[in-house]
């Protein structure tokens, strides 16, 4: 999978993780690891995988709270 953010600027970069919210692949330059306490407990927003299907919690744990930049921004605005 190629990084979505890099693709927008015409680059092709292999992804190292997937965003837990939108499921897009992100490279190490474009991932955001969210370490704030809000992520330790309940997720305050509705999580989705791909085409609107809800993720199982197991999947979310495996991805270790990695967000893409647009989702991270959206999340911050919702605090
Ligand atoms: Zn990238
Ligand atoms: Zn995302």
Automatic annotation (TrEMBL):
It comes from the Archaea. This is DUF2180 family protein.
